[in-house]
Amino acid sequence: MATDQSSIGRSVLLRQFLWPFITGFWVVFVGVCIWGGGALAQLAWAEQRAPDDPLAYQIQQLQLELDALATLTPVILQPSELAQAIGDAVYNTAVWAATGTLRTLMNIPGLWRENAANDFIRHHPDPGGTYAQKMFQDTGHSWQRLVVANYTLATRTAMFLAMLPLLALTTAIGLTDGLMARARRRANAGRESASLYHRAKLGSTGLLITSYLACLAVPSLTQPVWVLVPVAVGVGGLVRVQGGYFKKYL
């Protein structure tokens, strides 16, 4: 029994120690999958719309979306500057990760490097970093298309983040009206509905996630207001349902 309890104690301590790393891993993994999927979607749309010159089509589309982003009124941050910062962060992270991986594989001193068949790996002071730079230069057209797709996704992310003040407003209105409805329901001894509350809670989260994924995947987003305003209003309505059917007694 003592052994079982000590084993349980160690496993609990281990989970408490590892959960930040596990959470961070899944956040990074999901983020890479979403961003990579969005980039592949943009490449596929460009191939379909302009098979002769997809890079020129992507650049033209990016410029149109940047012009649309510039029309949004800044509240906290300038949307154009935010898009540039997001795009630069993703680009620099990708280059840093690829360069670091190649340096790890090619720069580690030891018997493997000393006995490598390639003279470049044996004698160059930084074969991994040099090879990474050459790789990015030689990819040419394909790499440029990925870079443009990255900044297109960054622009759309900035559009979505520009909705946050409107989302906060509709959420506050929906919550206030919902709590007033809850107060009337309590005063009249009305029934609460945990089913509606939980479905509205899941619906508001799901609406935000699916709308963001749709923004990344659509071929064009030159009219963000027609997308962002209905999403904010829909979330506000779902929050109103949550407030109205919250627990009768706290």
Explain what the structure shows.
The chain has 250 residues and is mainly alpha-helical. The protein has 2 domains: 145 residues; 88 residues, no CATH class. It is built from 10 helices and no strands. Helix 8 runs parallel beside helix 10. It starts with a helix and ends in a 6-residue tail after the last helix. Keywords: Membrane, Transmembrane, Transmembrane helix.
Q: With helices defined by DSSP (H or I, 4 residues minimum), what is the helix count?
A: 10
- Proportion of β residues? under 5%
Roughly what percent helix? over 70%
**Structural class by secondary-structure content:** mainly alpha
Tell me, briefly, the overall form.
Answer: globular
Chain-wise SSE layout:
Layout: H1 2-49, H2 54-70, H3 79-106, H4 111-114, H5 119-123, H6 127-139, H7 141-161, H8 164-187, H9 194-217, H10 225-244
Please give a handful of descriptors for the protein shown.
250 residues, 0% strand, globular, DtrJ-like, DUF4400 domain-containing protein, membrane
Brief characterization of the structure:
Keywords: Membrane, Transmembrane, Transmembrane helix. The protein is mainly alpha-helical and 250 residues long.
